[in-house]
Design brief:
This protein has about 375 residues and is α/β, with parallel strands linked by helices. About 40% of the residues lie in helices and about 20% in strands. The chain contains eleven helices and twelve strands. It has helices at about 15-35, 50-55, 65-70, 85-100, 170-180, 200-215, 225-235, 250-260, 300-315, 320-335, 345-365; strands spanning about 5-15, 40-45, 75-80, 105-110, 130-135, 140-150, 160-165, 190-195, 220-225, 245, 270-275, 280-285. Helix 1 (about 15-35) crosses helix 9 and helix 1 packs parallel to helix 11 (about 345-365). Bound molecules: 1,4-dihydronicotinamide adenine dinucleotide and magnesium ion (MG).
Length: about 375
């Protein structure tokens, strides 16, 4: 007799629209589980961490937060940040505390151009564009080494040092992962992005590791680009991109650019993997808490729902992940769009349409 598999998911909605979009993502997951013919189900744990929690408790998450999260198969995260708590406090206190605490060193951020979404790019083959950013997620510019001093010398005399840390091991594991991702695609190509002309230590080490690792993947085409030229190439020659790998800061910035030219930051999904499986991995939209639209019910839920699809795939539910991606495509093709991508639908209406399309896809199979 087959047994229903239960996945334990930790839900951290966070702040602002994080709450609105995570609720929608959870609705899609619940729908899939309810219609899985007893194949699988979810047990959700709810963690109300974020800026409100900080104002009450003086910290962004419970002191034993990581210990609590360890018991879960995956983490589904909204967004963190609100105007009454400094951004570096909220980001380091929650999101980076989890990615670093759980050594979620591999971040993927697919750039997808969906049908029916007015793109910001003037490109003849817009619907064929599809690439994936692989971001080093544990060190580099976000290592957190540095300090501030000398404020006692008087106004205007303070000094801040922020060091980037690149380890050979850290470069190697993310670059190797990028090559492995490239091998799953029909055009096998990895482009490494640095700024090693100016950053002559850390990023030169990165370049050297890239060259060394690439020799083990003779079937994969390679390129090495500088980030300023790559920013232009995202806009001018996006059809040449497949897998783009970069350091923490570089790939973070490029991923916002990618999702913006695909239509909106609200469309972009991401996964933070601890690929050894020692700790849970975390799935979240790329965007932040968007205080400018929070509470209006108009946030685009697609980035979060697509992140849910990445989570399903990670849990081994590949078919269900594919169905969610197809339901998203069908929904934008039908013109069910939130205001950020030129429509007038509300957050919940877009999710309703995605679930409706899912139900049709489930009937067809
Ligand atoms: P943001 O991503 O929150 O918003 C940037 C712009 O994109 C805004 O105009 C917003 O309305 C729009 N936008 C974002 N997501 C959208 C969606 N789903 N649907 C429709 N429009 C959407 O970035 P911002 O304004 O720089 O940061 C706001 C707060 O979020 C800050 O506190 C920041 O630190 C935090 N943040 C948190 C992140 C995380 O938790 N992973 C990532 C980025 C920012
Ligand atoms: Mg970002």
């Amino acid at each position: 007799m087959s047994q229903k598999k239960i996945y334990k998911i930790a839900i951290i909605p966070g702040d602002g629209i994080g709450n609105e979009v995570i609720a929608e993502g959870q609705r899609v997951l619940e729908y899939l589980a309810a219609n899985s013919n007893e194949k699988f189900g979810f047990e959700f744990g709810y963690f109300p961490w974020g800026c409100d929690y900080y104002k009450e408790h003086g910290r962004m998450m419970a002191e034993d937060g990581l210990e609590q999260l360890k018991a879960y198969d995956a983490i589904y995260f909204g967004a963190v940040g609100w105007n009454d708590v400094p951004d570096h406090v909220s980001l380091w206190g929650l999101r980076l505390a989890i990615t670093q605490g759980f050594d979620q060193w591999a971040n993927i951020r697919p750039v997808r151009f969906l049908p029916g979404v007015p793109s910001k790019l003037n490109h003849p083959d817009i619907e064929k564009l599809d690439w994936i950013l692989v971001r080093e997620n544990s060190e580099g510019e976000y290592s957190g080494f540095g300090g501030r001093n000398f404020s006692a010398r008087g106004a205007g005399k303070e000094v801040a040092v922020q060091s980037s840390v690149f380890t050979e091991e850290g470069c190697e594991r993310i670059i190797r992962f990028a090559f492995d991702v490239a091998r799953t695609r029909s055009r096998k190509k990895v482009t490494s992005v640095t700024k090693s002309n100016a950053q002559q230590y850390g990023l030169v080490l990165w370049d050297e590791v890239f060259k060394r690792v690439s020799r083990e993947y003779p079937d994969v085409e390679t390129e090495q680009w500088l980030v300023d030229a790559m920013a232009a190439r995202f806009v001018l020659k996006p059809e040449t991109l497949e897998v783009v790998v970069g350091s923490n800061l570089i790939a973070d910035i490029l991923s916002d650019l990618g999702s913006a030219i695909a239509g909106s930051l609200g469309l972009a999904s991401s996964a933070n993997f601890n690929l050894e499986g020692k700790y849970p991995s975390m799935f979240e939209p790329v965007h932040g808490s968007a205080p400018d639209i929070a509470g209006q019910g108009v946030a685009n839920p697609i980035g979060t729902i697509a992140s849910g699809a990445l989570m399903l795939k990670h849990l081994g539910l590949n078919h269900e992940a594919e169905l969610v991606d197809r339901a998203i495509e069908e929904t934008t093709r039908q013109g069910k769009l939130t205001p950020d991508i030129g429509g007038s639908s509300k957050t919940k209406e877009v999710t309703d349409a995605i679930i409706d399309n899912l139900s049709q896809l489930l009937v067809q199979q």
